[in-house]
Specification:
With 285 residues, the protein is α+β, with helices and mostly antiparallel strands. 20% of the residues lie in helices and 35% in strands. The protein has one domain.
Length: 285
């Protein structure tokens, strides 16, 4: 499929507008929430506080699209360009629109944890007297830990608002998170659900994000990402775009070759030099 500059700009505009509410969450998840929180299963008052590993967490590597290798032909494959436009927009929104929640989590988690009894720990942080963060972790059901973050903001009128909540197993091999919007009705303010899995080596993992905001045109939009060694795979289900359906992307994070599958079902590929190639010529699964 060939796509001209006008089409590229349309893709950029459409994905930018639609993904405002769902995509910003991903960086919080990647930076620490989804992959890094290990949990303790001790059941006494001396139980170890849940901790976050400093390295080795699963990350979504989109660098091939956001920062393509410098040694490439002047004209890259048009299908690679299509994938790059779409993926770059999602990545851009990730870093732009969810910067504050990402900062809030780390400001809270780096504070000394206070044990509150009943296998519950608390973290508290105050920005400037107007905004405060309250994070809790509680061991439940003998095999998991529930996490909650509350935010209070005098200027915005937030009073101990539950910004997001989730649960992970004690081995930190999987869990889920749910995010809420204070500007929506209290009984229907869910905006995004995400589930994640990872193995101990952190070379294999899965991440699913679903737009659960029933007031948003993208309600039901889904992003799935999987990493298996150096092979990355992602698919996007776009509910109400002009090209409704499922977009798929598969690529090697080290050798650069990859494939895009369009909503209509046809696939196109590029090689290690980002030039168009027959899909049979690249070793993708």
């Amino acid at each position: 499929m060939q796509i001209n500059d006008v089409q590229k700009q349309f893709f950029l505009w459409e994905f930018t507008v639609k993904k405002y509410l769902i995509i910003p969450v991903i960086f919080v998840l990647i930076a620490g929430l989804i992959a890094g929180i290990a949990c303790s299963d001790d059941e006494d008052d001396n139980a170890e506080v849940p901790f976050m590993p400093g390295s080795g967490v699963l990350t979504v590597d989109l660098s091939l699209f956001t920062s393509p290798p410098t040694l490439r032909p002047a004209e890259t494959c048009a299908d690679f360009d299509t994938a790059r436009v779409i993926v770059t927009v999602w990545s851009y929104l990730t870093t732009t629109f969810f910067a504050m929640p990402r900062i809030a989590f780390f400001l809270a988690i780096v504070q000394p944890a206070e044990y509150a009894g009943d296998l519950t720990w608390e973290w508290n942080f105050n920005f400037d007297g107007n905004t405060s963060i309250h994070m809790t972790a509680q061991a439940v059901s003998g095999d998991s830990v529930e996490w909650k973050m509350f935010v209070s903001d005098i200027e915005d009128g937030w009073d101990h608002f539950l910004w997001y909540s989730g649960k992970c197993d004690f081995e930190a091999t999987g869990g889920w998170w749910e995010f809420h919007d204070p500007d929506l009705p209290a009984d229907s303010n869910d905006v995004l659900w995400t589930g994640w899995e990872k193995n101990e080596s952190d070379t294999t993992g899965k991440l699913t994000l679903i737009n659960t905001n029933e007031f948003n045109d993208g309600y039901g939009d889904t992003l799935y990402y999987e990493l298996d060694g150096t092979t990355a795979f992602a698919w996007i289900r776009d509910i109400d775009s002009s090209r409704f359906g499922r977009w798929e992307f598969t690529w090697d994070i080290e050798d650069y070759y990859g494939m895009i599958t369009y909503p209509e079902g046809h696939s196109r590929c590029w090689d290690t030099s980002l030039e168009c190639t027959d899909c049979d010529s690249i070793p993708l699964k």
